[in-house]
Write a structure and sequence with these properties.
The chain is built from 16 helices and 13 strands. It is an alpha/beta fold and about 425 residues long. It has a seven-stranded parallel β-sheet, covered by helices on one side. The protein has a six-stranded parallel β-sheet with strand order 8-13-12-9-11-10, sandwiched between helices. Helix 2 packs parallel to helix 3. The chain is globular. The C terminus is likely disordered. Bound molecules: adenosine-5'-diphosphate and magnesium ion. Magnesium ion binds next to helix 3.
């Protein structure tokens, strides 16, 4: 019996209705069209390929950059009764053999794989019996140098897809919507940007997350009650006891310092950065995910794998290097749809740190790329405008993603401050006119 997408949604995932964009994307994949879906973090991109994977005969391959992300997804799928597995550097030879055996036997529905493993795994050969109807490129912005997380290994994906016969449907997903990144994905994956029946289906759902409140504080400056970032941070946390939240810092050193500060003040807090060993990172992340510690202080190494629905605030102790990174990190708040706060603690020093990091990453790359440096400095400038400008913060974020919005959202610190001013002037006018 053929499964309907609504039945799969309910039976396997326990959801009653689709979120915006999901149904159209699933329909396009099932109709055999390549897809590029650009949806914000937390929108529910995974279901857009997991449901077709369950409905199509054969094995769906999901290329995903992060081991933690793969593991979480595969465990979640197995809990829902879906035959899924992953191939990455963390699995043992025995697990590898087991996975390949189940592919050969035609039992597996979804295989998550790291891009570095694509060539070695000889998937087309192993899956020849059942076929590969769909290849998913998750976090597809990793293909583009202009995105915030370029990965060289992603460039092998197009060749891999080409090696599969008959040609599978390619479905790419990302939360990054800048025109340059989007063009790169379309070109590098050879998706054709047409919306006729045979061309690729390109869908962008709105980027607005109305439940998120945005705030910028400039400790030590006029208009900010706190004299420095630590005081500002402690003040923010004072009103958010028992809430779960992420505090992002620019460097490992800052993570250690902030973690130490909060620990001494008695907060249930853990930390995450690339300088910690694998086991400790995993333990700390789990402590946070499973609510044993409500707060985590982290560098951006705590990234795409985080799918915790009840994060009630994301505080940036330092300003990130561009708006994409900021929106993606801040967007980890409020995935459950409940009101949540995204607070940026800004200082001029943050701009300096980022300029330094941009220069260093150029020095450390094989070949210096002045265009890329210039591009990254421009993105930094836009981030700085966000932090220092007076207009609606939400509008600034959305216009970065080419999305129109009103100049007043009523749910960001700039709008609320402006609102107070309007009130005051109204009051003043009333007094004058009396
Ligand atoms: P993305 O990859 O777009 O960041 P995910 O696919 O990780 O988002 O989904 C985010 C959360 O939304 C997950 O917890 C998922 O279970 C939930 N979700 C996805 N689709 C639906 C739906 N139709 N109804 C309710 N919850 C959903
Ligand atoms: Mg995702």
């Amino acid at each position: 019996m053929a499964l309907s997408k609504h039945k799969v949604l309910e039976d396997f995932f326990g959801f009653k209705s689709f979120r915006p964009g999901q149904e159209e994307t699933i329909d396009a994949v099932l109709a055999g069209r390549d897809v590029l879906a650009i949806m914000p973090t937390g929108a529910g991109k995974s279901l857009c390929y997991q449901i077709p994977a369950l409905m199509l005969p054969g094995l769906t391959i999901v290329i995903s950059p992060l081991i933690s992300l793969m593991k979480d997804q595969v465990e979640g799928l197995k809990d829902s009764g879906v035959q899924a597995a992953c191939l990455n550097s963390s699995i043992s030879p025995a697990e590898y053999n087991e996975t390949m055996d189940s592919i050969l036997a035609g039992k597996l529905k979804l295989l998550y794989i790291a891009p570095e493993r694509l060539q070695r795994a000889e998937l087309p050969r192993f899956a020849a019996g059942q076929g590969i109807p769909l290849v998913v490129v998750d976090e597809a912005h990793c293909l583009s140098q202009w995105g915030h997380d370029f990965r060289q290994s992603y460039l092998d994906i197009a060749g891999f897809i080409k090696s599969i016969k008959p040609k599978p449907v390619t479905a790419a997903f990302t939360a990054t919507a800048t025109p340059k990144v989007r063009e790169d994905i379309i070109t590098l994956l050879r998706l054709k940007e047409t919306n006729d029946d045979k061309g690729a289906f390109i869908i962008t759902t709105g980027f607005d997350r109305p439940n998120l409140y945005f705030e910028v504080q400039k400790p030590g400056k006029n208009g900010c009650a706190s004299k420095d970032k630590n005081t500002a941070l402690l003040d923010c946390l004072k009103t958010r006891t028992d809430k779960s939240g992420i505090i992002y810092c620019a460097t490992r050193k800052a993570v250690e310092e902030v973690w130490d500060l909060l620990l001494r003040r008695g907060f249930g807090v853990t930390r995450y950065h690339a300088g910690l060993g694998d086991a400790e990172r995993k333990k700390n992340q789990d402590d946070f995910l499973y609510d044993r510690k409500p707060i985590i202080v982290a560098t951006n190494a705590l990234g795409m794998g985080i799918d915790k629905s009840n994060v009630s605030f994301v505080i940036h102790y330092n300003m990130p290097k561009n708006i994409e990174s900021y929106y993606q990190e801040a967007g980890r708040a409020g995935r459950d749809g409940a009101p949540a706060d995204c607070i940026l603690l800004y200082s001029g020093q943050d701009v300096k740190i980022n300029e330094f990091l941009i220069a260093r990453s150029d020095e450390e790359s094989n070949e210096s790329n002045p265009d890329l440096v210039e591009h990254n400095l421009e993105l930094l400038k836009q981030m700085t405008y966000y932090a220092t400008g007076n207009g609606c913060l939400r509008q600034r974020l959305l216009s970065y993603f080419d999305e129109q919005s009103q100049g007043y959202c009523g749910n960001c610190s700039n709008c609320l401050t402006a609102f107070d001013e309007v009130d005051i002037s109204l009051e003043a006018r009333k007094i004058i006119s009396c």
